[in-house]
Amino acid sequence: MGMDFWEMSCLTVTAECLSSRITEIGVRCEAMTSVSHLRMAHLRQCAGEENWVDNRTVYIGHREPPPGTEAYIPQRYPDNRIVSSKYTFWNFVPKNLFEQFRRIANFYFLIIFLVQLIIDTPTSPITSGLPLFFVITVTAIKQGYEDWLRHKADNSINQCPVHVIQHGKVVRKQSRKLRVGDIVQVKEDETFPCDLIVLSTSREDGTCFVTTASLDGESSHKTYYAVQDIRAFNTGEELDTLQATIECEQPQPDLYKFVGRINIYQDRDGPIARPLGSENLLLRGATLKNTEHIYAVAIYTGMETKMALNYQSKSQKRSAVEKSMNAFLIVYLCILISKAMINTVLKYVWQADPNRDEPWYNDKTESERQRHVLIRAFTDFLAFMVLFNYIIPVSMYVTVEMQKFLGSYFITWDEEMFDEEIGEGALVNTSDLNEELGQVEYVFTDKTGTLTENNMEFIECCVDGHVYVPHAICNGQILPGASGIDMIDSSPGGGGKEREELFFRALCLCHTVQVKEEETVDGIKRGIHQGKATSFYISSSPDEVALVEGMKRLGFTYLRLKDSHMEILNREDEIERFELLEVLNFDSVRRRMSVVVRSSSGDYFLFCKGADSAIFPRVVSGKVEQIKARVEHNAVEGLRTLCVAYKKLSQPEYEEVCHLVNSAKLALQDRDRRLAEAYDIIEKDLILLGATAVEDRLQDKAADTIESLHKAGMKVWVLTGDKMETAAATCYASKLFRRSTQILELTTKRTEEQSLHDVLFDLSRTVLRQHGSMTRDTFSGLSNDFQDYGLIIDGATLSAVMKPAQDGCSGNYKEIFLEICRNCSAVLCCRMAPLQKAQIVKLIKTSKEHPITLAVGDGANDVSMILEAHVGIGIMGKEGRQAARNSDYAIPKFKHLKKMLLVHGHYYYIRIAELVQYFFYKNVCFIFPQFLYQFYCGFSQQPLYDTAYLTLYNISFTSLPILLYSLIEQHISTDVLKRDPFLYRDIAKNSLLRWRIFAYWTFLGVFDAMVFFFGAYFLFDNTSFTSNGQLMTTNTQMMFGNWTFGTLVFTVLVFTVTLKLALDTHYWTWINHFVIWGSLLFYIIFSLLWGGIIWPFLNYQRMYYVFMQMLSSGPAWLGIILLVMVSLLPDVVNKVLCRALWPTTTERIQTKRQCLTVEQSTIFMLSQTSSSLSF
């Protein structure tokens, strides 16, 4: 105890490094080997590494140590404020503007706007500045509102009241004002405001019970311990007299690791030093249960708490569609620059002829003549850039922002995603990723509370081949209608009766269950029988509770642990007392636990329970074959099975057990290894008694949801902090693993038998043997032609896999691991720390295929992977709201993920894909005639369209139809999408925004633009003078002029692009008709008013009477109709041919639905005709 803290730390760390031992959660830690290295490792966060740095000294209650003991060195630590928001009041404007102008389109239009302000351009600066200002403002308001909601959530946490001991009294203050060293009082059902060390509790034994559901996903009760020497300090006044300091490591993200010591100063020569470990540390976010109150001291606060260190930093997530938009934008920017350069060069080529240089109508000023030719060429180039800049659709970004913001409400309004139990529906925390829901390839899900309800149900037990099935016992509650016991086999007689009772006693004794004798726990009435309060059970393992309750139904009731004696009420209502001598705790490597007890008659028993693979090799007698057959049957059914065995110990054998266990516990180095060796010696030569089967109840429709995701082409990974056996059983129950699935293990147990290198290559050969270099991505997940593989990996092995390469020969194992995973239909990662979950997601996300990932979880331990994935979904479950608050979307239950992806995601993607392609198409149609027109106006930068048309084309005339389409289009009904998940594959891998389809839309736009321009040019082919001197067209009898020509082209353009959208619409409602036909009517009315009135605020009246005169020509009407039909013809022909020759699954269903509709209409008409004839 006198060892210096650093010596103790160095010994511990060096021992870990030398032996590569496994930590409590199964994470292999690569520790540094010297103090200097420890001090340098603060910011290193490699997989599996600990972040050791200099220690900190915490003065409990901020009281100085007695004079002459040690120097008082006050240290500054952060306050307890939690920050998840992105902006502040002061940096919102500059930071938001910086992020928005990182977008290529926004930056481009800013440059164009500045050019229009600086030089003389053919169009007004308003035509670029107004749409840009509108885009920036709408986006800033949307993002500001979303961040305000995050601020609001942060404030609700930071302003939460906490109780602090000051001068012997309990003082109430806000959570954000808590400081390191404050003594905090926490009452039952309250959440810990920061990381605390337990000083004392209201329980006499100094223990307290805690649920860490929001941290590691386990909602069961865990036991934590107060410091032995000060657990008697039970009041604020007593604690005010305490003089003590805590020396501990600096904050690091490992939830399950803590090293420190407390120095208690009493009336003696020196302080009393006591070690502190993870069993003394209460983490922020955990909740105190079934303990009236505790006193604890704050050691890590605010963003230094372990959970805050496990949060990933918030980064701007960008969808695949947005990345495609930016790529398309660069292509169009290149086209724009090419157009401007071609026109600039041709202008100077055309003006090389002296007769064309300075015509009387375009005479240059003296300053223009004296300007250098390169400056003039550059100015002309910029002018052409401004003239053609409308090919870059800035309004597309406005429409996309509005579509995402408004479209997100459809998730919120969805009544099928409303949960009656919690009274809430789905929430959208960010609407920027709606379409990404339709592109998911990998789903990473938590287990406890996400896939399961964390409710254990005792199903049956088998004793010497006899099966017992009590009715529905769930989490300590005997469900209604459970009266009696069903015996599948008859009860044994004679000596078998003794073994049956010994089995029941074994399960009543071999556990870590605590008993509470109150009517309520967690606000729920428990253990009520015939109106009287009886005992009920709490434990760190919910299946232990189910087993003890199962024994209660079978006649053996565990009563309590009192004074180291366990009491059982047997079938004869007699109380049996057993002295608890040793507990050999469960661990993931041994996969079993044991207790050593002494009966009232003085006999010593070792009772052992564990996984079948851990028990069967250690038994020497018993009905092994019958029990093994029943265990295999239950495993196939997806039940969690445990085997129970025992052996009787003599006095010398018991003393040997005590010696082995105590010597291992006192070891300072290799304690875990020595304990494992001792347990291995003790737990052998057992007699098999029987087996149990427990079911972890899945959430409603969880298995159906996972099956649908598989059919949709998604790979589902389960990432959990739970034990491997528990997680594997859940995977079978949820149909993640099927009966035919061959399980591959990449676990600590196997890597201890073989090197990691050999295990990885063995697994790689196994999965590639059947289908060579082809990966399972090539095949359907439901194919029966290939062996179905499932991989199980634990956190410790993952750390070794993720470790950077040390030499050239061993190499980096990541690629081999990824290759194995690609060929597995499902992967289970157990004993994962929160940061490891995020590392797994990042590993897949950054692999060479760059798949779209989705992470779903319900606890604070899932926040890191939720933030790391492309799309993060939080479940509003029992484990707090940290996951829901930090996610992109929040849903009440896992089953709602099916509709979220298969329906909403599908709709969002096809809508926004059409929106993007349509915007580029209609802008090509809009600006390419302007390019062609320059060849007929001497490259004079003369606009083809009037300024009003240039400004309103994207804002008014063509914006509403595509916005409405992108909000309500349903190419297939909701029921069909839910019923046939295979349709999700049609839109996978950004299939509707591929370069081939983008090129088709672009060429379609160029073709339509050429039809508009040259069709109108043909109508203006022949001209003649009238008697009053006007120039009229011979063909159409219209006034000939550039504004008439431009108006005709613009009219055909507006009608064509609007009707093109009408042809693409599958879901017609009255609002579609209103918007589409209303937009065309608005254009006509606007043109009549714009050209029919002399507007006093305009300094020109060039459009006066142009539109009305054009409409007065009958041939012009016919020409407009013909040009629109010719423009739409290629697209119609292409659709017909593709549907007939190469239909997609979606198009087949659409055709089938149309046929059914026609058939139903025909039957209805025939029935109506028949009834009228009979009448």
Automatic annotation (TrEMBL):
Residues 161-224 form the P-type ATPase A domain. Its main location: membrane. It is found in: Cell membrane; Early endosome; Endoplasmic reticulum membrane; Membrane. Its EC number is 7.6.2.1. GO terms for biological process: phospholipid translocation; positive regulation of myotube differentiation. Residues 884-1144 form the P-type ATPase C-terminal domain. One of its GO terms (cellular component) is plasma membrane. Coiled coil: none annotated. The active site is at D446 (4-aspartylphosphate intermediate). Its cofactor is Mg(2+). ATP binds at D446, K447, T448, E544, F586, K609, R640, T720, G721, D722, R831, K837, N861, D862. PANTHER family: PHOSPHOLIPID-TRANSPORTING ATPASE IH (PTHR24092:SF33), PROBABLE PHOSPHOLIPID-TRANSPORTING ATPASE (PTHR24092). Component of a P4-ATPase flippase complex which consists of a catalytic alpha subunit ATP11A and an accessory beta subunit TMEM30A. This is Phospholipid-transporting ATPase. It comes from Aldrovandia affinis.
